[in-house]
Amino acid sequence: MSTYVGRHWPLAVAAWSDLDVYHARADENPIRPPWKSTNSSRTVQLVSNQLVIADALETPFQVGGVSYEMMPFTTNYGCEYDLRIDGNIIQQQFWAMAISPSWAKVGFSDLINLPMVAIWRDVASTTQNIRIIIYRSLAQIDTLAQSGSIDGLINNQWYTLTMLVERDRLIRVYVNGTFCFAYWLPAQYASGVLRRGINMLNQTTNPAYVRNFKLFDRQSDFPTLVEADWALTKTDDFDRPDGAVDNGWVQVGTDAGIVGGKWTSTGTANGSRALLTNTGATDGQQRVVGKFGSAPNSTADSSLLLRVSSDGTTGLASNYYNGRIYLSRFTGGLANPTMVDYLSDAAALDGTETVEFACDAQHAWIKVNGATVLMADLNNQVAVANSWAGARVERTSGTNSPSWDRLSVFRRAT
Question: Fold match between 3-217 and 227-412?
């Protein structure tokens, strides 16, 4: 049986472990609690203290796997285990870990429309990757997102697979401790109270083996910061005559300025323009708060900017369209930036919102009207020492992005 490691208030942290040297027990066939077979026709055993799930060919028209009886208590939790899977290269192969509302209701119909972290290989392909998939029916699987190619995932070798979940929305996946993939779950797929169960499916053409299983609540590695944690370095409401911004800002690009008490694109030339100030912060901890001056649209986006290099060529951006928000990094300069998205999510924005973008050395997050709507692990891809921050507007296909009515830039208080 498994061990309940501990729980202590007020943190309400719990953890369980099984299939390790501390829980060695006799072989079981069929598997017994704390595990429950997903499909009574698929063989699931305990052999040499390893969970063994028979291959998909045993039930070719049905999924099969096993669920664990416990669920984390908090919005930040994780699951980790050693995994060994293999399969031919002729058929589609995958191993999936569903985030489920019940360990007991584990028939296929109970797994419809649930998010699953999948180790995936396409038909007649040696390319393997990590995906977020959704079963719509036995015949339809939708892929919400996928990583690049990762070698050795379905190759009959052991590796440690770790899934960390943040605020029931942000999923991060690690292989042997190396960060490989992240995804922000859409609201309809978010986990929650009594919706944090783990159900593992083996849809490969060989038995799957699991050992050293852990399921745990965890403290967030994203900081919890309040207003007093930030020191204001610059603020501007642009409430002055139309024209150049000045006031200590550095503007990148032309065809932008103050119009009607807002900073916006001017003229008819398409392009990107930025407004920057030096925060002096070289520890990676910065924040920008902006109030839209007009409604976002679906053609041209405006941005809040953090960790911008002194030459303006690289940095972080939160990009706002009507319908979607993106947390990105950019290269190529702010006059013509190339955006590489970390994560994005749907958002209905009408221009009345106050938005903010903040980061520490390793993480970034976006808020709308004070509520966190997107988070990302920066994965050491933007220099911590970049000290400039600000905002961006653009004109695309003859359409201006939303203007900024007010901007405030912060660094961490000392």
Answer: yes
Residues whose CB is less than 8 angstroms from the CB of residue 226 and which lie 6 or more positions away in sequence, other chains included = none
Q: How many helices (H) and strands (E) does the chain have?
A: 0, 32
Assign 116 to helix, strand or coil: strand
Look at residue 89 and tell me whether its pLDDT is greater than 60. Answer: yes
Question: Which of the 8 DSSP states describes residue 351?
Answer: S
Single-letter residue type at 129: N
State how far the Cα of 31 lies from the Cα of 69, in Å rounded to an integer: 12
- The stretches of 302-410 forming alpha helices (DSSP H) are none
The phi, psi pair for 35, rounded to 5°, reads: -110, 150
pLDDT exceeds 80 at position 280? yes
Could you tell me which CATH class the domain 3-217 is placed in? mainly beta
Which position has the token pair 């953890």?
A: 15
Mean pLDDT of the 37-45 span: 87
Euclidean distance between CA atoms 148 and 398, whole angstroms? 35
The domains of the chain are located at 3-217, 227-412
Q: Under a CB-based contact definition with an 8 Å cutoff, are residues 64 and 41 in contact?
A: yes
Q: Tell the residue number behind the tokens 């024209």, with chain if given.
A: 243
- pLDDT of 108 over the 80 cut: no
Three-state SS for 166? strand
Length of the chain as a residue count: 414
The CATH number of 227-412 is which of 2.60.120.200, 3.40.50.1580, 2.30.30.240, 3.40.50.1370?
2.60.120.200
Structure tokens at 326: 């993106």
Buried b (16+ CB within 10 A) or exposed e, 205-214: bbbbbbbbbb
